[in-house]
Design a protein that fits this description.
This protein is an alpha/beta fold. The protein has helices spanning about 1-15, 35-40, 65-70, 80-90, 105-110, and strands at about 20-25, 55-60, 100, 115-120, 130-135. It comes from Pseudoalteromonas caenipelagi.
Length: about 140
């Protein structure tokens, strides 16, 4: 029984330290730092440094990679982020990022549109996208 509890603890610990990769289309040569990513995903930055309009893609709320991204990158809980976007939507000042169901959907969207940015589990990254930052 002790071993089972220990294994469960290890599995949960490993999950909570999962790496998140922010990805863009391979042709996107824009400069993207932590602050830029934060501003994009909070609706404060509307375009890449190359001038192209940015299309942020997130993942469904409750998805573990979303929780990790919100905590590590945006320094907000899902509840805080939901309240933040509700206020912006209500006042007509913003639209939250589009949501994908999983890593594969984000990779497909980003690899097919040079103006998109997304985040996925680092273990899911393929050669179809470019990693600009890992958290």
């Amino acid at each position: 029984m002790k071993h089972l509890i220990y294994l469960a603890f290890l599995a949960l610990s490993a999950h909570s330290f999962a790496a998140v990769s922010v990805i863009v289309h391979p042709s996107n040569a824009s400069t993207i730092d932590d602050s830029t990513i934060n501003r994009i995903y909070t609706g404060k930055e509307k375009s890449f440094s190359n001038g192209n309009k940015v299309i942020p893609i997130g993942q469904d709320a409750g998805n573990p990679v979303t929780e990790e991204f919100n905590t590590k990158v945006l320094n907000k809980s899902s509840a805080q982020l939901k309240a933040y976007w509700s206020k912006l939507i209500f006042t007509g000042k913003g639209t939250p990022p589009k949501e994908a169901a999983n890593d594969a959907e984000v990779i497909q969207s980003v690899s097919s549109n040079p103006d998109t940015i997304g985040f996925v589990s680092s273990s899911a990254v393929t050669g179809d996208v470019k990693v600009v930052k890992e958290f």
